[in-house]
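User: Here's a chain of 782 residues. Predict its fold as tokens.
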Amino acid sequence: MEKVEKVTEALKKATIGGDEKKAKKEKKAAPAADASAGPLEMNPPPSFIQERIDLFDRLYKEQQEEIASRPREDITITMPDGTIKVGKSYETTPAEIAKGISNSLFKRTVVARIDGETLWDLERPLEKSCKLELLDFNDDQGKFVFWHSSAHILGEACERRFGCSLCIGPPVDNGFYYEMALPDGAAVQSTDWAPLESIVSKVVKEKQPFQRLEMSKEDLLKMFAYNKYKQHIIKDKIEDGTKTTVYRNGPLIDLCRGPHVPDTGRIEAFAIMKNSSSYFLGDANNDSLQRIYGVSFPDKKQMAAHKKFLEEAAKRDHRLIGKQQELFYFEECSPGSAMWLPHGMRIHNAIMDYIKEEYWARGYDEVMTPNMFNVSLWEQSGHLAHYKEDMFLLDVDKEQFGLKPMNCPAHAMMFRHRERSHKELPLRLADFGVLHRNEASGALSGLTRVRRFQQDDAHIFCREDQIKEEVADLFDFMRKFYGILGLTFKLKLSTRPEKFLGEIETWDRAESRLKEALDEFAASDKDGGVSWELNPGDGAFYGPKIDIAVLDCLNRPWQCATIQLDFQQPQNFSLEYQTGEAVQKGETKAAVEEPAPPAPEAEAEKDKDGKEKKKPLLIKKALSPGCARPVMIHRAMAGSIERFTAILAEHFAGKWPFWMSPRQVIVIPVGMGFLDYAKEVAALLKKEKFYADVDSSGNTLQKKIRNGQLAQYNFVFVVGDDEMRNRKVNIRYRDDTSTQARDVPFDLDEAIQKLRQLKSDRGMYNPFPHVAEAKKEEEVKA
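Assistant: Prediction complete.
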């Protein structure tokens, strides 16, 4: 069933639409009739529904009889608090355990987790002694199960209304969707939403139980004979002679690994959010499908809170802010590649400048590597097998080249281009080079999902005993960087997966050092706001990693920073350094081996198509005497600068802090007679490298001030006769409403000095607090 999940993941990226115009026109779907003009459901229902039910009922009865024949044994169920519950195998269910504790616990429990890993239906009997956790909607996995079950309810509603062929219906970060093909290529309309929600309400009231059935590939092909999309998935992803599962609720039966909530009555609040088009398997050459997105909650109060959250998020949408503030835009002739406008580049450069300052202080060396490499580089690194579909490939001089989607292989080559000594470690290589990834056109979304981007990418080559110290410095970097932006974060340590490369002892040592670094980092937090959790078995195949989720002001998690240990790339590229230990007598330092041409008499090796195999970029070699392999640490703080800019735009709602603001000061003369002084003030500010503008329009003073506030200038400097004669400015600070009134002039030179300090501090404070205090004093006197 894992293979079915892989195709599900691929299909999640296949939606059409978003912000980018499609590079390739899809086949136009036939318009559907207005929903208000037709019946709520198909009557009679499609014949395949009853045929599917008949096969399910027969096989489900056989399965239940087989389970009933299994021997019952006493089992122990260990709860999180250590208490032991006694049960019988193939009889006792997690639901019974939950009810035995309290009925309210059962009602709020979504799904069970067995032995810390396997999710389990509440009504499915336990098969052996185990550790049992009861997860509710607030747990991330519980939420995904809840939304997955909601997707099945939506799928049932769509079959009952349209008689459609369902494709997939997975949970996603903010709800779920179901993808389908409507008869005659019809399209879903927004007027279909209310009828679908009406059917969903019926399904919820019926409290249809979710039933799990294991089926053979042959029976699956019979069950879904009417659906060419399910047929394709079954034939392509399920091996002959194997079984997988389907789940039934009411008339719906769908290919699914599960698990699910006990019954449809758990979904008390349900809403359709949008619909769009997509391509089957995410391939524009395949059929165009319809996709309906929804969200659901255990109660209506949470749904109301979610809708309020969406309203606030819509106001902060970085695409809207980007347009209003003229930061960036996209051209149809280069989808997924941002056109950075001057004001957008000011923000981009401010982020980069800060990171470069930190690099200088922390001992990083900035490098630059080519944008295009022969694909043999990624064959050597092992990335090609995983990234080929997401790369832009070109034929050059009868060879295949690709635009780089990541920097790590190039940095490995840079490390090995000459002999290295232990005295050079740790070696920290930073690269802001342009990267390209061939994202599906439908997945493109403003700056958060692009094809061309830059990262604050760096790789640290170090000894094993240096891992803890390097990771501790990365934590310090992260805390400082996110701290000045008002961002908080969560940490997870992802450990050795089932399929891994390298020695277990090496993994254990690395994980131990990461745990120590995490513990010390958490202990060093004075406010106690930093903690971390273990994410067992979710590390990369090449090494453990620390996943960092950044939380913005709306408490939305964003994946930005990453810290990954890599033992594999140093082996792939035969990286080594001289340890400084004496080489034993009789041993010699081996030369770096280069690929050798085949001997004249030997026939060149050929691939499965009979073509001569291309020579490898490098031939892997054993360690030279007196040498050791470095550990490679992949790390980023901001991640994609494009994506990070989008996150900050929404976090600040377009009210950029002074040090990165594209509009820092606007100077407003109270009349045209003071325009020259206004220009002089702006010139002095620009000399200090502040972004300053002058409003020389004929608008009224109040209109000019209002325009400056709407444009999100951090400071409005108003100048008139008194200010000009005394070289002063009247200051209004955007983020302090108590400074919005006039008549408290401030010395110009001192104002510039305070702005200089504010920028240097990268602060988010009012550098003119006594201006506000003076105004308050005036109000008291009045």
